Amino acid sequence: MYFASEGKNVFWYGYKGHLAVGTSSQYILQTLFSSGSLNDGKAAIPLLKGIHERLALPTLRYQTMDAGYDYDPIYEQIHRMGHQSIIAYNKRNEPEPVGFNKHYAPMYIVT
Fold first, then answer.
1. 110 CB contacts (<8 Å, ≥6 apart)?
2. What does the pLDDT look like over 85-97, one tens digit per residue?
3. Does residue 88 contact residue 70 with C-beta atoms inside 8 Å?
4. Are β-strands 15-21 and 28-35 bridged in parallel, bridged antiparallel, or unpaired?
5. Other CB atoms within 10 A of residue 7 CB
6. Does residue 1 surpass a pLDDT of 50?
7. CA distance 109 to 111
8. What is the spatial distance between Cα 41 and Cα 65, in angstroms, rounded to a whole number?
């Protein structure tokens, strides 16, 4: 719920689907439906656990996600599964990386 410009309450009802999709096969590996207000990062761990518990895919080794999934618990879950994560850096969640510029190129300090 939020307030409109006239001071009236506005409600938004909606749902969204979260999908884990195989990149080469394009098969849907796991699904989760939630309210539209759920943060995508919170849906990642149940999706990952569902894949790990229900599917025996020896070729599945990497988890690729966008910056909305850049949270430590997601990295930890992927590591527990024995996989590697490829997740875009979300600068809002973390401090500025030490030793790198805004383009993530190494910076050398000469003294």
1. none
2. 999 888 776 666 6
3. yes
4. antiparallel
5. 6
6. no
7. 6
8. 10
CA distances from 47 to 37, 43, 52, 106 (A): 17, 6, 9, 35
Q: For the segment 9-54, what is each residue's pLDDT rounded down to a tens digit?
A: 656 678 889 999 988 889 999 999 988 888 888 999 999 999 888 8
Secondary structure in 3-state letters for the chain: CEECCCCCEECCCCEEEEEEECCCCCCEEEEEEEECCCCHHHHHHHHHHHHHHHCCCCCCCEEEECHHHCCHHHHHHHHHCCCEEEECCCCCCCCCCCCECCCCCECCCCC
pTM over 0.85: no
Q: What is the mean pLDDT of the chain?
A: 82
pLDDT of residue 40: 86
